[in-house]
From TrEMBL:
Keywords: Cell inner membrane, Cell membrane, Cell shape, Membrane, Transmembrane, Transmembrane helix. The gene is mreD. It comes from the Bacteria. It is a multi-pass membrane protein. GO terms for biological process: regulation of cell shape. Belongs to the MreD family. This is Rod shape-determining protein MreD. It is found in: Cell inner membrane; Cell membrane. It comes from Aestuariirhabdus litorea. The lineage of its organism: Bacteria, Pseudomonadati, Pseudomonadota, Gammaproteobacteria, Oceanospirillales.
Length: 162
């Protein structure tokens, strides 16, 4: 028996690049407040779909790229992404069995934790703590999750990514 070589690395990388672009595309003032956490959502999907291949290292790299692109404190997003990736790696078998609405609730909690880590890092560095509106991206991410899941699953099946 021969082992199958992993396929689709370029598609995975391009999905992260697209998420990074969506994370920095200019939006009006209200749009910035509710912008979904695209990079974290893409990381969640790939960790759930391919936990043996996409994990904490990919999430850390994507978070570091997001830090560089957004000009935030280096490691702020990377730390949050690592926390989310680790949680999803621990839950991936259970999460796959849940229907999409229930997955959305777990995504809401995971993105909320991501936002809490970012808030903690900002407060440690002396930035002003915002009100609860910092959780709005968690809500919009949970709302978008079913569609993003279906799109990325279709891509994974179409390109036979393993």
């Amino acid at each position: 028996m021969s082992e199958q070589r992993p396929r689709g690395g370029m598609v995975i990388l391009l999905s992260f690049v697209a998420a990074l672009l969506l994370a920095v595309i200019p939006l009006p003032g209200w749009g910035v407040l509710v912008r979904p956490e695209w990079v974290a959502l893409v990381a969640i999907y790939w960790v759930l779909a391919l936990p043996e291949r996409i994990g904490v290292g990919w999430a850390w790299s994507a978070g570091l790229m997001l830090d560089v692109i957004q000009g935030t404190l280096l490691g702020q997003n990377a730390l949050g992404m690592v926390v989310v990736a680790y949680i999803m790696m621990r839950l991936h078998r259970r999460m796959r069995m849940f229907p999409l609405p229930q997955q959305s609730l777990i995504v809401f909690v995971a993105i909320g934790l991501y936002q809490m880590v970012a808030l903690w890092v900002r407060s440690v560095t002396g930035a002003v703590a915002p009100d609860l509106s910092f959780l709005l991206p968690a809500i919009s991410s949970a709302v978008i999750w079913p569609w993003l899941f279906l799109i990325l699953r279709d891509l994974r099946r179409r390109f036979r990514i393993n």
